[in-house]
Amino acid sequence: MSWRVVYIEKSDRLQLYLDNLKVVREEAEILIPLSDIHTIIVDNQQTVVTARLINKLSLYHILLVFCDDKHLPNTYVLSPHSHHQSSKMLKKQIAWSSSFKRIMWQQFIQIKIYNQASVLNHLKRNESVIFSLYELAEHVKLEDQSNREGHAAKLYFKELFGSDFIRDRDSLDGINSSLNYGYIVLRSAVARSLIASGLHPALGIGHNNQYNAFNLADDLIEPFRPVVDLWVSVLMDESDYLDTKIKQKLVYLISNNKILIGNQKQTILNAISILIHSYIKSMDQENTQLLVYPANGIAI
Fold it and tell me: Model-level pTM?
């Protein structure tokens, strides 16, 4: 199984050499076997990528991500033919029960809040806040109609990053920027695995924005968000800013760090695939007990 996320900060050219990615920078060349690569992130505006390489990446189901001028992942290149029965899977996905989707979304919000509590517990934070998160998770309603997710987030982020911290997706401060970057890289990995599994990433269960091509990716990323939160809390101080070193560290952790899922230690990339395959079984059989997700050992 492919496992490497390749981060390209500076390169003149990316091209194909046999079944290898060739990274060319001035006089230097680096070869990386395509069979090892899960995702390539191009974080500059100068790199030239050949069409021959892009076509070969599609055969290996490798996700190619281009960052914008703010250094945030912006464009995703992935073959729509990553699954041999994509049409059959799409019909099945469309036919899944709407009522069970509501139950499944409730489950995902509960898992997310439990994992937030797990992060605080790992860091030995305020026990009363941890208890409150467990209480909120227990009382999540269908479709999270009472917004337990929002209430949990307020408690969680202030306990994790300080009482003055405000989670703002548009903020340019170091912590918010790092969270955004980690989430987007993680979202890319989820989208890649969804398409490889034959699912259409736009057909969400909780997220249903008509302008969002990755609604389902935004649903299934939820159990993994606290992993990024933990890493950012360890890597960043309030006065820090998101630089290349932090971005590379986040990419490395998403590629190589392990968490507990199904009573086994797995890399994040493997864990995403395990969750998605169990999600398909759960939706097919309308049984949330079949869902395999990261829990408790999320802080490994």
Answer: 0.87
